[in-house]
Please model this.
Amino acid sequence: MTIRADLYLDDAVTRIEGPLVFVRRRVEVGLNEAVEVIGSDGRVRLGRVAALDESFMTIETLESTSGLSMAGTRIRLIGAPITFALGPGILGRVFDGVGRVTDGGPPVAALVKAPIDGAIINPLRRAKPEDFIETGISAIDLLDSLVRGQKLPIFSGGGLPHNRLAVEIALHARLRSRNEASFAIVFAGIGVPYDQAEAFRHALEEGGALGHTALFLNLASDSSAQRLLTPRFALTAAEYLAYQEGRHVLVIITDMTNYCEALREVSASHGEIPSRKGYPGYMYSDLATLYERAGRIHGRPGSVTQIPILTMPADDITHPIPDLTGYITEGQITLDRKLDRAGIHPPIGVLPSLSRLMKDGIGAGFTHPDHPALANQLYAAYARTMGVRLLAGVVGAEGLTPTDRLFLEFGQSFESRFLAQPDGPRTLEQSMELGWSLLTLLPESELSRLSDEQIHHHLRKPTGAV
Amino acid sequence: MNQAVIRWISGPVLRAVTHDPFCIHESVQVGARGLLGEVIRMQGDEITIQLFEDGTGLRPGDPVAGQGMPLSVRLGPGLLGHIFDGLLRSLGGEGRDFLQPGLCVTPTERFHMTPLAEPGRILKGGDPFAMVRPVGREGVEQLCLIPPDQAGEVVEILPGGDYGEEEIVCRLQDGQGLIVEIALSHPWPVRRPRPVERRLPVGPPLLTGQRVLDSLFPVARGGKAMVPGGFGTGKTVLLETIAKWCDADVIVYLGCGERGNEMAGVLDEFPRLEDPRTGRPLMERMVVIANTSNMPVAAREASVYTGITVAEYFRDQGLKVALMADSTSRWAEALREVSGRLGELPGEAGYPAYLSTRLAEFYERAARVITLSGKNGSLTVMGAVSPPSSDFSEPVTIQTKRYVRNFWALDRKRAQARFYPAIDPITSYSEDAETLAAWWSQEGAPDWARQRRRFLTLLEEQTRLERMARILGKDALPPGQRLTLLCAELVNDGFLRQSAFSVKDRHASPRKQIRMMGLLIRFMDRAEGAVAAGVAVERIVALPVLRRLQRMGEEIADDELERFDGLEAMLEADFGALSAGGEQGA
Ligand SMILES: Nc1ncnc2c1ncn2[C@@H]1O[C@H](COP(=O)(O)OP(=O)(O)O)[C@@H](O)[C@H]1O
Ligand SMILES: [Mg+2]
Model:
């Protein structure tokens, strides 16, 4: 046997089964190395070496094997894991789900080739995410703040305006202190319909952001095995932009549900024993290899912030896709169908939403010293409101105590005045001002999360009154 | 050394041909990069190996080298204050922003040794033979132990001075006349519990500084607790908070299949925090083991054993040790993944049938003991459990529950209301509570057991009454029951709620807990008396002291406990005024 790079094997295929192609080999190959499976139709399908013994290898094709035949199929051995050729020119460009330019422009001049699986960031070298990002959305900025390097998914449902929200965040997101130009957006569409992809591109263009955006589009019509590669190509691009070019990169991935469906499909075609609802038992680990690619690294100027979007099947937050995601990501922004129906935009369901890294990026020295207490008190009050609503639903408003009735009023205002943002983005100060004014609806004895000073300072001054 | 050659490889499993006498579970190094693995099956001339690292690039024909012993870790003075991966390899070293398979940094740290034995002394396994402290940095003094399975007469011991961890500093002659070389550190197979002289009953309490735990669901030293909870309910923050403030001598914090940023958070925060008892940085008494969710799964399975072995090593020095494992569910899932790859018959939810045995073996390693050298040591284990869909009837929760004595259930509703720690007082329990009552008595709370019971009954009653109110309306409840609801809310707000991020309240001493509990009991007594005398509940709600009681935890710090006297006076005065003006209100 000989060592090689870029070798072709002809007439070596012995069996094709689903995505797996069994090949007799006469040359040395390593596990997980990339191959191209070229059919007699001339189509190139990306694949990788999934198993090896002394004379055969199993190739997992990452695109459809349909149309392949035993005879006339050539295998090109790349001699390295799947990589993505990257350079500064990727911004402003559109790629397909496996990193091929699809906007009709010239190929990207490559500076580096990076393996798409990325490398594991050494936890010791991670820098703690703590730079508060103002998104202009009150429910996020005040109650579930986003910080640089965080992975904060949007848990949505079919027909809810998650894409609109994601674009709003992408276009508005800014640091409050400094104005840094080195900002970039990486957008990965996984299994999205063409018109949705187009709408995204259009919105970014309108907002003047297309020039610093790299788009990766795996369309609904593309193969499902390719869906597994799309976020990996996109994140590899993001890591390049962040750690080589020093940019702050916001990665938006939509829709992770399509990714998980593809994972289930591919797992089934491998004959693996399924775990919950047919999804493979390794889905947690697999998702983690994507989500954990958010972060910051000591001594490197850039950062990767992720906003993956997923649609919860049947709006069920306990479904394995949101469930496993929630166990990996640093919180979640949940969209609520009832609020959406009531015409509230953004329809953020506050109670099931959470930002785990918020505590590191807000408060004294970061935003406002009273930010944490205010967020806490609003949460406590709104949670109480939900309980009262439940009660009111059974015993009627007459059965409520006067205090409980105040909570109903508070909840109503919270949704129509604080959550709803008909006039567009707000600054954090505006959001906080609104938050304080809502709390004046409640008796002070119910505000146990606030100190006497906070009550005195924010709730008793004349301007704080409703 | 045993040798083999790769014949087949797929993902993290490979088969190799050999003529050498490999053992099951023998640790191996694979390929040119020396990737770590473990023999998991043998048949004829073929061994099956599971890789602990990513095998990209491996190929048939690559060599496999046996290590001659099961998966082992090196236990020594270089552990404290540092962070390691799931196989106890240091994550330190220059330019390692990203982890590469196979790469491993050998520790270069040196220690100042003071010998504790002299030639002629007979040393048993587990006996200390030297005292060391780090050279060139602050750090606690530690004992160095003879490996538990070795013994003999000291024939040579090097004089006091600076040595590396793996340097031979002592020679023993064993019963057969053979020379045994002893270094400051020694290897130990992770899946084998380290032996002890004997086990003792658990106790006294491991104080966590968390009121809901210490006062309602206390864990004893040598005990075991589980923290089940859906995502975002506060498992990690709770374990981290305990790690910060509990009164253990050594903390082993195991991040098993969880987030990289959380590990970064620990490494960022702990070195800056001071141990309230010693004034030293917390990090000095801590070992962090990180197998984050994006690290290889097989190593995750091993990391739990690594963690508990390290913890046992410190216990053997006669220390109080606490191990936090976040999350044991990820370990169970790793077990499931490995088992699936071997084609074993899946049991419930795909977990192998031996899940329960493995959990039992793990939690059994928690204990209070007399060590081999006759010292008192304890190892308390606290494990997070992450049930899929927050369903507490899933196998890992159910099986773990069989082996732990403390059940700290996290409640999503509480977490959503930002009520932390979100421990549900209704479903949680502590089997240690009864034995620990005597300790509280000695601390000046002879009524502890009764007061604790009263809190628990009150909270249970609250659940029942709230159900009733949902049908009848709150206004329809008689005054006595409305007061019960008021008191229960006060116990929740004023006692159970305790923010991990409040500088004054993140840690509450037993004295503070006793004062708070006593005040609340006093409030309940006086309020019940008042209502029985015909005072309207609304007037009690309006008492100024109520707000002070709700916030006393975060307003009164551990070093200003005398302020509780003022609060008590205010309470008595408020109620006094109430009965004085009783007729007007009636
Ligand atoms: N004891 C606590 N005090 C204050 N905040 C808490 C506490 N426990 C949890 N939290 C909040 O809840 C969030 C989620 O908690 P975490 O421990 O990460 O959940 P889990 O590990 O169960 O998924 C944290 O980021 C923090 O903001
Ligand atoms: Mg956690």
Residues B 235-236, 258, 326 surround magnesium ion (ligand 2) (CB under 6 Å). Residues 141 and 189 of chain B are 25 Å apart (CA to CA).
